[in-house]
Amino acid sequence: MVKHDATAKEKCASLDMPRHAASESDLLDDDGRKKRTGSVWTASAHIITAVIGSGVLSLAWAIAQLGWILGPFMMLLFSFFTYYTSILLSACYRNNDPINGKRNYTYMDAIQSNLGGFQVMLCGLVQYINLWGVAVGYTIASAVSLEEMYKSMCSHKSVGEDPCKEVNTNMYIIAFGIAQIFLCQIPNIDELWWLSYVAAIMSFTYSTIGVGLGLSKAIENGSIAGSLTGISVGTVTVADKVWRSFQAIGNIAFAYSYSMILIEIQDTIKSPPSEEKTMNKATLISVIVTTIFYMLCGGFGYAAFGDASPGNLLAGYGSFNPFGLLDIANATIVIHLLGAYQVYSQPIFYVVEKEAARRFPNCPFVTKDIKVGIPGVWCFNLNLFRMVWRTAFAVVSTVVAMALPFFNDVVGLLGALGFWPLTVYFPVEMYMVQRKVAKWSSEWMWLQALSLVCLIITIAAAVGSIVGIVNSLQNYKVFSFS
């Protein structure tokens, strides 16, 4: 029912009114925008939704490539990098003054305010390609989980004979893409708080199941599998050992990746206290929680399967009983990734729609909202440009996921491409400008050394993942439904 219906219009208007009379200033923030309502907990939910994603499923495989010593060490190292650079980045939400300074609504706005010039274009290119890549990666991961649910049900019905081994992933990729066409119509990230809470609960659920299954499998085996140095040369060639180790580092980097949407999350937080203080608390909570889950899930997975750990941990249990637990885990992964896809995609939606409104301010197709309501239940602002463009985004992401459905390889490449520039380089450079860090001071040298080390790690991880994709493409038929 649309705007022409007077009843729907009145109900929609009534839903937009405050419950109690209030002055306009009470409803607006210092920048004239609608008052932000986010807290430590909503910000933590957004972060956990973004961070504890499909990347957790590849951590047992990553430890299998690196071993019991280097694997957990790299997880701790990346958790430190993520927390430290997130603190630097959150300091750049407001310019100069953490309480009264001008707000930067997006990561790109922060780059523009602090660095400007060519670096704005470079950041935009890297950030939005990476955000879009995450959407593709999450589409692939969801399809894998849907496929595993189907196989599990077939196996159970046939009492282990499993007549459904040949399942085409593309059908599940398309199904996930169709669901995202509808979810993409949610206007902005501030209205995603409910979806983030649901997604965060789902991520805890499947991570906990993964931990429990890994522990059960290790107990069933009667020993802790794996070795100190990971998969050995002989089982794989020297070259494969090197490339797979680099790729494993990229997978770990991807598992901690969320800096590219940190500013957007911070822009949902109410003040006082300052958004920086709240965001730092949310970051600390989130990094500690995710690191504990990663250590448990990756560690118990490797203890269960050793050097044979699968790329997707839940895919390694086959007909392991109770099969229903695996189905629950895979279902929660899909639900979680439905929300995480949106958290990562909203910054892209925002910048495209903002630019379209700037270029075509008098075009009703771009700027006009149509009130759509279910009387007495729900009201929604439908924008035709938003509907068309976001639908196209979901369709293109789905097509690319069908062309490159290699979970581990894509995850490793995304982690490598986004880690150094978005998690380290830009936050470090902006912080030094914001806080006027003197060149050649001890703080300046420490930050530059940190950036250099992370650049080397990123290059190694990217090379390893590209080699993996090239090898996978040799045995894959693009867009096959057979």
UniProtKB/TrEMBL annotation:
Stored Pfam families: Aa_trans
Keywords (A to Z) from UniProt: Amino-acid transport, Auxin signaling pathway, Membrane, Symport, Transmembrane, Transmembrane helix, Transport
One GO CC annotation: endomembrane system
Superkingdom classification of source: Eukaryota
Transmembrane annotation, as ranges: 43-63, 69-93, 128-146, 167-188, 194-215, 284-305, 325-344, 387-407, 413-433, 445-470
Domain Amino acid transporter transmembrane, first and last residues per copy: 36-469
Compartments reported by the entry: Endomembrane system
One Gene Ontology molecular-function label: symporter activity
Family: Belongs to the amino acid/polyamine transporter 2 family. Amino acid/auxin permease (AAAP) (TC 2.A.18.1) subfamily.
Name this protein carries in UniProt: Amino acid permease 3-like
Organism of provenance: Senna tora
